[in-house]
């Protein structure tokens, strides 16, 4: 019996039995396995091996090879050092002075104001002030006692005016006097020093020259070699017979 067809019958049978089993719980499982059966199949089975064939070859190969030629050139290493110093940068400027000619032509008065003290005697009374305490505890003034006259000198400053006479002078411009006026100017000057360290550098030139060489190598190829053999294969299987024994109510 074909294995696929047998499996289909088992599935249909189980569906049928399950329908009955769902209608009652009064069942027992009496399933079992049937006798072992065999499926026979004729098959051809193959494997392979790899064969490698190699050939040694030699070829001459040429290429451009760079060739570098260098010469030395002087390259001093220099640096600048700045220094700031103070220095005078004086100059003169031509200037004209207009000379004034002055003469006395009268009198002018200068009024001087001074303050001088003026004093007089002033008499005042000095008394003891009397205070009375009321039954409520409040203190009130009760008059003056033991009064006496005291005279003292009181002074005040008053303005005193004094006239001073001085000659009146009138000036008029006269001749022009030329001269050189000096100007002193201090500036900051930057002094630069250059310090060098002797050194040499390389100047290189690259040229190409052709070189050739024999190269020996091996080229290989691989091929598949199949090997097949036929035979019969017996595949055993054991069908499962699923059964339930049930008692149904009438």
Helix-strand blueprint:
Blueprint: H1 3-21, E1 27-29, E2 32-33, E3 37-74, E4 77-88, E5 91-133, E6 139-183, E7 186-197, E8 200-237, E9 240-241, E10 244-246
Antiparallel strand pairs: 1-10, 2-9, 3-8, 4-7, 5-6
Features:
250 residues, mainly beta, 79% strand, disordered N terminus
What would you say this structure looks like, in words?
The longest helix is centred in the first third of the chain and has 19 residues, at 3-21. The protein has 250 residues and is mainly beta. The radius of gyration is 72 Å and the shape is elongated. The chain has a two-stranded antiparallel sheet. A two-stranded antiparallel sheet has the order 2-9. A two-stranded antiparallel ribbon has the order 3-8. It has one helix spanning 3-21; strands at residues 27-29, 32-33, 37-74, 77-88, 91-133, 139-183, 186-197, 200-237, 240-241, 244-246. 8% of the residues lie in helices and 79% in strands.
**Could you name the ranges where pLDDT drops below 50 across 5 or more consecutive residues?**
1-24
Which percent range fits the helix content?
Answer: under 10%
Shape: elongated
**End-to-end CA span:** 38 Å
Radius of gyration: 72 Å
Give the neighbour order of strands across the main sheet.
1-10
Number of helices: 1
Instruction: Report mean pLDDT, rounded to a whole number.
Output: 83
Question: SSE order in H/E notation?
Answer: HEEEEEEEEEE
């Amino acid at each position: 019996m074909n294995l696929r067809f047998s499996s289909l019958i088992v599935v249909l049978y189980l569906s049928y039995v399950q329908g009955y089993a769902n209608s009652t719980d009064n069942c027992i499982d009496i399933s079992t396995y049937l006798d072992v059966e065999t499926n026979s199949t004729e098959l051809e089975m193959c494997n392979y091996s790899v064969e490698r064939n190699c050939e040694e070859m030699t070829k001459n190969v040429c290429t451009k090879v760079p060739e570098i030629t260098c010469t030395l050139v002087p390259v001093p290493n220099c640096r600048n050092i700045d220094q700031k110093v103070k220095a005078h940068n004086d100059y003169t400027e031509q200037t004209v002075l207009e000379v004034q000619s002055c003469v006395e032509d009268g009198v002018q008065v200068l009024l001087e104001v001074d303050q001088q003290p003026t004093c007089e005697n002033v008499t005042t009374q000095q008394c003891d002030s009397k205070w009375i305490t009321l039954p409520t505890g409040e203190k009130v003034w009760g008059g003056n006692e033991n009064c006496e006259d005291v005279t003292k000198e009181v002074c005040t400053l008053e303005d005193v005016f004094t006239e001073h006479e001085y000659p009146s002078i009138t000036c008029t411009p006269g001749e022009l006097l030329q001269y050189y006026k000096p100007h002193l100017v201090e500036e900051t000057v930057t002094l630069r020093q250059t310090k060098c360290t002797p050194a040499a550098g390389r100047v290189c030139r690259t040229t190409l020259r052709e070189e050739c060489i024999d190269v020996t190598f091996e080229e290989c190829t691989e091929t598949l070699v199949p090997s097949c053999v036929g035979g019969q294969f017996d595949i055993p299987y054991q069908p499962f017979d699923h059964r339930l024994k049930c008692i149904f109510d009438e």
